[in-house]
Design goal:
By secondary structure, the protein is mainly beta. The chain has four helices and 21 strands. A five-stranded mixed beta sheet has the order 5-4-13-8-9. Strands 6, 7, 10, 11 and 12 form a five-stranded antiparallel beta sheet that branches. It is globular. The relative contact order is 0.16. The chain binds (molybdopterin-S,S)-OXO-molybdenum (MSS).
């Protein structure tokens, strides 16, 4: 597979053949490269940075990295080494960019034209946010958001609000949140937010702030542009503003991963159609697959380990396919009973596209 653009230095260790490099800050996983175990291999996990990542120097002494905690009764800072003494939790999550699937929107929203690959399922390990709050004397009264600030350096002379990555999530969302230093059993690399990253399970990618340097419990949402204007569900043609919902909780979504290469015909006969299915805020319960563009559906079998409600499940349907053309679609229903819709929820920037129709894949069987 040839890539139009090379991997940037901080992501050189990714498996180039599995990735589509849109830019140095936007790199997605190819549809056929997620693997079938349920866990996305680290060298194939997508990368998205809103601004260039900090220098690799911040990884020299990861345990010495400091995070400031405020909006608590006893504001203080913690080194990663100190955090490691406060508690330990692992959580399997789907990490998915808000813009994943944007490339299927007809109105061509601005932003990276992601298809399916700005997502992966990985296991993060760190300390529960609740344990950190406790170690800082408890949350201060009346706080409604957790506001986390990324560790990127802000170029002198710029208003930080225009460029910094600072995101607020409602405190109701932090029940299972962690500050993570490990991913899939390995030290968290810079590309994915090392030395320390916020993970808010179930919440869209942007809320999982990398190289986090400040966690604040606040009464208001961050004044940063990335919170106020970007990542909002505004109608097509309308700029994002705080009156529109912020991109927080994710929706149920699935797609077929194999077979998916339109260039390589599939051999007629028994074909194992497989893919990944996430439930959003509750577990993926049922997956249906269609081979004729959504006219008829058959229930698929869930595969792989059940890694909890924030993870995705593999699925498979065995189908006997004669030579011809097929449109493979999948549709997940979560434990709350919400099904993946046929149509995308239209919005200006093409966020959170979970339309099963948009995510179909055409294959040739010969
Ligand atoms: N963080 C920081 N600090 N910075 C940046 O830029 N981005 C976001 C998150 N976080 C950022 C952060 C986004 S946007 C996303 S998706 C994510 O991250 C990704 O991750 P990875 O690891 O994959 O790269 Mo969209 O919604």
């Amino acid at each position: 597979v040839s890539n139009a653009k090379p991997l940037p230095p901080y992501a050189k260790w990714k498996d180039a053949d599995s990735m589509i490099v849109h830019s140095a800050n936007t790199i997605e996983t190819r549809r056929n490269a997620f693997g079938s175990s349920g866990i996305t291999p680290l060298d194939r996990l997508y990368i998205r940075n809103n601004i260039s990542p900090p220098s690799e120097d911040i990884m020299k002494e990861p345990d010495a990295w400091k995070v400031e905690v405020s909006g608590v009764k006893s504001p203080r800072s913690f080194t990663v080494a100190e955090l490691k003494s406060l508690g330990l939790a692992s959580v399997a999550v789907v990490l998915q960019c808000s813009g994943n699937g944007r490339g299927f929107s007809e109105h061509k929203p601005s932003g990276t034209q992601w298809t399916v690959g700005a997502a992966g399922c990985v296991i993060f390990t760190g300390v529960p946010v609740k344990a950190v709050i406790e170690a800082a004397g408890g949350m201060a009264d009346g706080m409604t958001y957790m506001t986390s600030t990324g560790g990127e350096e802000i170029p002198a002379g710029l208003d930080p609000n225009t460029i910094m990555v600072e995101r607020s999530v409602p405190v109701s969302g932090i029940e299972d949140a962690i500050l993570a230093w490990e991913i899939n059993g390995e030290p968290l690399p810079l590309a994915h937010g090392g030395p320390l990253r916020v993970i808010v399970p179930g919440y869209a990618g942007v809320n999982n702030v990398k190289y986090v340097k400040h966690v604040a419990f606040t009464k208001e949402q961050s004044p940063a542009k990335i919170q106020q204007g970007s990542y909002r569900f505004s109608p097509i043609g309308v700029k994002g503003t705080p009156e529109f919902d912020s991109i927080w909780e994710m929706d149920p979504k699935s797609w077929v991963t194999l077979p998916s290469d339109p260039e390589t015909p599939v051999k007629a006969g028994r074909v194992q159609i497989s893919g990944v299915a996430m439930g959003g805020m509750s577990e993926a319960k049922k997956v249906e697959v269609s081979v004729n563009g959504g006219k008829d559906w058959q229930e698929a079998q869930l595969t792989g380990p059940d890694l909890g409600k924030y993870a995705w499940r593999g699925f498979v349907l065995a189908a006997d396919l004669k030579p011809g053309k097929y449109q493979l679609a999948s549709r997940v229903t979560n434990a709350d009973g919400t099904s993946q819709p046929e149509m995308r929820k239209e919005n200006n920037r093409g966020y959170m596209n979970n339309s099963w129709r948009d995510h179909m894949v055409a294959i040739d069987v010969a």
